[in-house]
Specification:
The complex is a heterodimer of chains A (about 600) and B (about 350). By secondary structure, chain A is mainly alpha-helical. Chain A is built from 18 helices and 2 strands. In chain B, α1 packs across α2, α2 runs antiparallel to α3 and α3 packs antiparallel against α4. Classes of the chains: A mainly alpha (about 600), B alpha+beta (about 350).
C-alpha cells in the first residue's frame, strides 16, 4: 500500500516524486480545529484521544474504588462526602449494598476494558505502530478514527448507565446470568444492565476496527528494510495483542447478544428452572454455564490483551535505559507466540468450581500452568537484560522495573490459582483479588506509566516533571504492595470477595483492622495518581521543552522524526532500516547505541 | 463547608508539591543537568535497596501478624492434602519470588549508571535460555502432578455409605434438605415452589419426599468421620457453597445439579477447643456474587458425633408433615422406628396426598 495515498487521498498523489516533495512541506496543511483535534485521522492525535479518555475513565474508576474501600475499611462509619457524589445511593454517607455492588462492577468494567484495553493498547498501538515500523499512518486512518469514536460512544453509554434510576450494572464485571439476566434478581439488572451490554457491544466494534488496522499496518506498511525480525518488541507485543483481540472479542460479542436476547426477547440461552420474585419462570433448557464459557473465552485472552503491551513497552524501556540489548530477542518473540496460543486454551480455569467435568478441569490445569514457562522465560530475559548494564533510573525505567517486580509477584500466585486442587479453596476469595490486581492491574498500569513517561516527549515535544515522576513511582510501588500483599492472607483464610460487610462472619470479622489499613493506603495511592494526572496535563503545556530529537539515546525509528511531526511523521522520505532494534553498543563515535537507520559497517555482521 | 475546605486544602497541597518539583527542575538546569542526574541516579539506586529491605521486613512482619488469624487445621481429609500442597507450592514460589526479586533489586543497585561503566553486549545465549525454559517446565510438571492427584481425590465419586444432603441456594439464604429415613431425596420441580409451604418445590407424588426434612436456617448437620455428599442446586441465580474450613467450594447453578463430598474429621465442639474460640462455627459462605444480600448469605456446618446427630435428627419434623396438603398430624413420622417398615406407610400417605389435591 502506498503511504502517500493514505495521508493525502488518491486525488493528490499524481506521481511518486511530487508526493514525496509534498511531504517536505506541511505548512499548507493547516486544518480546521475539528479535523485536527476531534475527527482526526492522524494516528498521533487518535492515540492522544485514547489516552486522555482513558485517563478520565481511570480517575472515575479509581474514585469508585476509593468509595467502596471506605465501606470495606470502615463499615460502621458514615462519610457525608459520599452523599455529595452519589446522593440517594449513599444516603447519610453510607453506601447501600446495591450501589456497593454497582461500584465494584463498574470499577472492574471501566478499568479492564475502558482503561487497560482501550486506554492502553489504543494509545500505544496508535502511537507506536506507525512510528516504529516506519509508516506515515495506519493502514486505514478512517477506520482508526471510527475505532476511537465507537469507543467514545461506548463510553457515553457506560457513563449514562451511572445515572439511571436503578443504577448501573451490579452483577460483577463478569455479569454472570441469571443474576444479570433477570430484572427481579437485582436493581442493577434493570436498565443499567441493558446499557452495559450495549456499551460493551460498541466497545467490541471499536476494538475490532482498531485491531484489524494494527495487524494490517504491521504486516503491510513496514518501511524498507524493516523485516519482521527487525521489529521492536513493542510492535511484536502490540501485534499479538491485536491478534488476541480480533479472535476473542467476537466471542464476547456473541455472549453479550445472547444475553440481550434472554433479557428482552424471552429466549432461554442461559436460563433454566428459575423461581424468582415469587414465581417460576417459563425458561427451561438453557445453561448459565454457557455464558461463562463465552465470557471467559474472551475474558482470559483479555488478560493478555492487557498484559502484552506492558511487556513490550517494558522490554523496550529496560533495554534503552540499561544501554544493553534486550536479552534473547527471539526467545522474547517465541514466548509471546506461546502466550498468545495458550491464552486461547485456558479460559475454563476460571470455572473449576462450576461443576465442570473433573477430566476437563485437569486439561485446563495442565495448559494453564504451561503459561508459566513462557512467562518465566520473559522474566529471566528481563533480568539478564539489566544484568551488567549501565542503568539510568528515569521514571519510565523505574516503572518498567516495577512492572517486572509486579509481574513476578502476580505471576507466581497464578501458579496457585491455576492448579484446580488449590483453586477449589482459593476461588473467589481475596487471594484472587490480590492476584489479578497485581498481575493485570498494577503491573499493566506500570507498563502503561513506563510508556507514558518514556514517549511523552514524542507525543508533546516536552518532558514530564522528573521529581514528580519519582514520587509517583515510589508511592505507587510501595502502596501497591501494601494494598495487595495482605489480601493474599485474607484469601488464604477463605475471605470471599465481593462482600459488602464481614462483621457478621465469625471466620472473617477479625480482618477488620487489615481492611481499614488497606483502605487508607488505597486512598493515599489514589491521590498519588492524581499527582501523576496533574503532572501529565501541566507538562503538556508547561513541561521542559525537548531540544534534541533522541533524548533517551534510543535506536528505534520514532526518534528520527521531527520534534513536532506533522501528519505523515517524516519530512521527506521514510528512513530505511538496516539493523535490529537493540544495537546498544559502541558505534565507534563515542555513542553507546546504533540507530536502526545506520547502515551496517563494512564487515559487520547483522545480529 | 468542610468539603469546601478539604477541597481547597487538597488543591493547595498539590500546588505546593508541583511548585517544589518545578523548582527542582530549574535547579537541575542551573547546577548542570548531568551532575544532578548522576546524583539522582545514585539516590534512587539506594532508595531501591531500601525498598527491597523494607519489603522483606514487611513480609516477615505480615507473616507474624497473620500467623494466628488464618484458618485452623483443615477439618477433613482432602483439606489436609490441600494444606500440604499449598505449603509446598508456597515454598517453591517463595524461593522463586525471593531469588528473582533479589536479582532485580541487586542488579539495579550493582549496575546503576556510572561514567566509567561499560556494558556487556549480551544479546543471547542458547544454553541459558534452554536452562530457564526447562527448569520451570519441570517444576510445573511436578506441581501439576500433585495437583491432579488431589483434584481427582476431591472430585472422585462419593462412597456408597455417604449421607446425602441437598443444599439449595436462594437469594439470600441456604435451604438444607435431609433425605429422612429412606435415605433418598425425593424429586423436586421448580414449578411447584411456593414460598409459603413448599420452598424447594417438592413433588408430593414422589413417596421419597414425605420423610424429607428441610432446615431453613441454613444449618448443615453431619456426623464426624462419616462421608457426607452434598447435592447442590439453586432456585434463582448462581450461588456457591464455600466451605473454607474444609478447603472446598462448589457452585450452585440453577438448572444444573452439582455435587461435593467430604469426610469431616473434627467436630464443631473439638474445633472450639482447638481454636480456643467458644464462638467457633464452621461457616458456609456464598462465594458467587448473587445480588444485594450476597454478603449475608450465611450457613453453618455442625459436625457432631453420631449420638448427637441422631438426637438432633429425631427432634426434626418432616417438611411433608408441616406443609403438604392433607398431610397427617406433625407427630406421625416420629412414630415409625425404622426406615424399612416406614416405607410402605409413607407411600400410602403420599397417594392420599395426591388424591386429596
Amino acid at each position: 500500500m502506498n503511504n502517500e495515498i493514505i495521508i493525502d487521498g488518491p486525488n493528490i498523489a499524481h506521481g511518486a516524486e511530487s508526493a514525496t516533495d509534498h511531504h517536505g512541506d506541511h505548512e499548507h496543511h493547516e486544518q480546521h480545529f475539528i479535523w485536527k483535534y476531534i475527527f482526526s485521522q492522524d494516528h498521533k492525535m487518535i492515540s492522544k484521544q485514547f489516552l486522555i479518555t482513558g485517563i478520565i475513565w481511570a480517575i472515575i474508576g479509581a474514585l469508585m474504588s476509593v468509595f467502596f474501600r471506605l465501606q470495606l475499611g470502615f463499615p460502621d462509619s458514615t462519610f457525608p462526602i459520599m452523599e455529595k457524589f452519589m446522593g440517594e445511593w449513599a444516603k447519610g454517607g453510607k453506601l447501600t449494598p446495591e450501589f456497593y455492588y454497582a461500584l465494584i462492577t463498574m470499577h472492574g468494567t471501566i478499568l479492564v476494558f475502558f482503561v487497560l484495553t482501550a486506554g492502553l493498547s489504543g494509545t500505544f498501538a496508535n502511537l507506536l505502530i506507525p512510528y516504529q515500523v516506519g509508516a506515515r499512518d495506519m493502514a486505514s486512518p478512517f477506520m482508526n478514527m471510527l475505532s476511537y469514536w465507537f469507543f467514545f460512544a461506548a463510553s457515553i453509554l457506560m457513563m449514562v448507565s451511572l445515572f439511571v434510576e436503578t443504577g448501573p450494572a451490579a452483577g460483577g464485571w463478569t455479569t454472570y446470568p441469571p443474576l444479570s439476566a433477570l430484572k427481579e434478581a437485582s436493581l442493577g439488572s434493570g436498565l443499567g444492565m441493558d446499557l452495559w451490554l450495549m456499551g460493551m457491544s460498541l466497545f467490541v466494534v471499536s476494538s475490532l476496527l482498531g485491531g484489524l488496522n494494527y495487524i494490517a499496518t504491521i504486516l503491510n506498511m513496514r518501511t524498507k528494510g524493516m523485516t519482521m525480525t527487525r521489529l521492536p518488541l513493542t510492535i511484536w507485543a502490540l501485534f499479538f495483542t491485536a491478534v488476541l483481540g480480533v479472535l476473542s472479542f467476537p466471542v464476547l460479542f456473541s455472549g453479550v447478544v445472547l444475553l440481550i436476547f434472554d433479557r428482552n426477547f424471552g429466549t432461554s440461552f442461559y436460563l433454566s428452572e428459575i423461581f424468582i420474585g415469587g414465581k417460576a419462570l417459563p425458561h427451561i433448557g438453557g445453561s448459565a454455564i454457557l455464558y461463562q464459557h463465552l465470557f471467559w473465552f474472551l475474558g482470559h485472552p483479555e488478560v493478555y490483551i492487557i498484559m502484552l503491551p506492558g511487556m513490550g513497552m517494558a522490554s523496550e524501556v529496560l533495554s534503552t535505559n540499561s544501554r544493553k540489548p534486550i536479552f534473547g530477542y527471539f526467545a522474547m518473540i517465541i514466548s509471546l507466540v506461546g502466550i498468545t496460543l495458550l491464552a486461547f486454551l485456558v479460559w475454563a480455569h476460571h470455572m473449576f468450581v462450576t461443576g465442570m467435568s473433573p477430566f476437563l478441569g485437569s486439561i485446563f490445569v495442565l495448559l494453564t500452568l504451561l503459561i508459566a514457562v513462557p512467562s518465566a522465560v520473559k522474566v529471566f530475559n528481563w533480568l539478564t537484560t539489566i544484568w551488567r548494564g549501565n542503568i539510568r533510573f528515569s521514571p519510565a525505567m523505574l516503572f518498567a522495573l516495577g512492572f517486572v517486580s509486579m509481574f513476578i509477584s502476580g505471576g507466581l500466585t497464578g501458579i496457585f490459582l491455576g492448579n484446580s486442587a488449590l483453586d477449589i479453596h482459593l476461588h473467589d476469595t481475596y487471594f484472587v483479588v490480590a492476584h489479578f490486581h497485581i498481575v493485570m492491574g498494577v503491573s499493566a498500569f506500570f507498563g502503561m506509566f513506563a510508556g507514558i513517561y518514556h514517549w511523552f516527549p514524542k507525543m508533546y515535544g516536552r518532558f514530564m516533571n522528573n521529581t514528580l515522576g519519582y514520587v509517583h513511582f515510589f508511592i505507587t510501588f510501595a502502596g501497591a504492595y501494601l494494598i495487595f500483599w495482605p489480601m493474599h492472607y485474607e484469601g488464604i483464610a477463605g475471605m470471599p470477595r465481593r462482600y459488602y460487610d464481614y462483621s457478621a462472619w465469625e471466620s472473617f470479622k477479625h480482618f477488620q483492622g487489615v481492611n481499614a489499613f488497606i483502605s487508607i493506603v488505597a486512598i493515599i495511592v489514589f491521590f498519588a495518581q492524581l499527582m501523576f494526572v496533574l503532572n501529565f496535563f501541566v507538562s503538556i503545556f508547561k513541561g521542559r521543552r525537548m531540544t534534541t530529537l533522541n533524548p533517551w539515546g534510543s535506536t528505534t525509528l520514532e526518534w528520527t522524526t521531527p520534534i513536532h511531526p506533522g501528519h505523515g511523521n517524516w519530512v521527506g522520505e521514510i528512513p530505511e532500516v538496516h539493523r535490529w532494534p537493540y544495537d546498544y553498543r559502541d558505534d565507534g563515535h563515542g555513542n553507546d547505541f546504533i540507530p536502526q537507520t545506520t547502515p551496517l559497517r563494512p564487515g559487520e555482521e547483522e545480529h | 463547608m468542610s468539603v469546601f475546605i478539604i477541597t481547597i486544602l487538597i488543591i493547595l497541597v498539590f500546588t505546593i508539591i508541583y511548585q517544589i518539583s518545578k523548582a527542582s527542575e530549574y535547579a537541575t538546569v542551573l547546577r548542570g543537568t548531568e551532575k544532578v542526574n548522576a546524583q539522582a541516579n545514585r539516590a534512587i539506586a539506594w532508595l531501591l535497596v531500601v525498598m527491597f529491605v523494607l519489603g522483606i521486613w514487611g513480609i516477615w512482619e505480615c507473616n507474624a501478624l497473620f500467623q494466628d488469624r488464618l484458618l485452623p487445621i483443615a477439618a477433613c481429609k482432602t483439606g489436609e492434602n490441600y494444606d500440604s500442597m499449598f505449603n509446598m507450592t508456597t515454598l517453591v514460589t517463595g524461593i522463586v519470588f525471593f531469588a528473582t526479586q533479589l536479582a532485580l533489586f541487586w542488579f539495579c543497585f550493582r549496575y546503576q549508571s556510572a561514567e566509567k561503566r561499560t556494558t556487556f553486549f549480551f544479546p543471547h545465549n542458547n544454553k541459558l535460555e534452554i536452562l530457564w525454559t526447562t527448569v520451570p517446565a519441570i517444576a510445573m510438571a511436578i506441581l501439576v502432578a500433585i495437583g491432579l492427584r488431589n483434584w481427582y481425590d476431591v472430585t472422585s465419586p462419593a462412597p456408597a455409605n455417604a449421607t446425602v444432603v441437598e443444599v439449595v441456594g436462594k437469594q439470600f439464604n441456604w435451604l438444607i434438605r435431609y433425605p429422612g429415613k429412606d435415605n433418598e431425596l425425593g424429586k423436586r420441580d421448580f414449578r411447584k415452589i411456593d414460598d409459603a409451604n413448599n420452598v424447594l418445590g417438592l413433588d408430593w407424588s414422589d413417596p421419597h419426599n414425605t420423610d424429607d426434612i428441610i432446615s431453613q436456617n441454613g444449618e448443615l448437620h453431619c456426623v464426624v468421620n462419616k462421608p457426607v455428599k452434598l447435592v447442590i442446586g439453586s432456585r434463582d441465580v448462581i450461588h456457591d457453597v464455600g466451605l473454607s474450613h474444609f478447603r472446598l467450594k462448589m457452585d450452585a447453578v440453577p438448572g444444573i445439579t452439582t455435587t461435593l463430598w467430604f469426610v469431616p474429621t473434627i467436630t464443631t465442639d473439638s474445633m472450639k477447643l482447638i481454636t480456643k474460640n467458644p464462638d467457633f462455627v464452621y461457616e458456609i459462605s456464598c462465594d458467587q456474587m448473587c445480588g444485594k444480600g450476597h454478603y449475608s448469605m450465611r450457613g453453618t456446618v455442625i459436625v457432631q458425633t453420631q449420638a448427637e446427630y441422631d438426637k438432633w435428627m429425631a427432634s426434626q419434623q418432616t417438611y411433608y408433615a408441616g406443609n403438604a396438603p392433607g398431610a397427617p398430624a406433625p407427630a406421625a413420622p416420629a412414630t415409625a422406628p425404622t426406615g424399612g417398615e416406614a416405607k410402605p406407610e409413607v407411600k400410602n400417605d403420599s397417594v392420599k396426598a395426591v388424591t386429596m389435591k
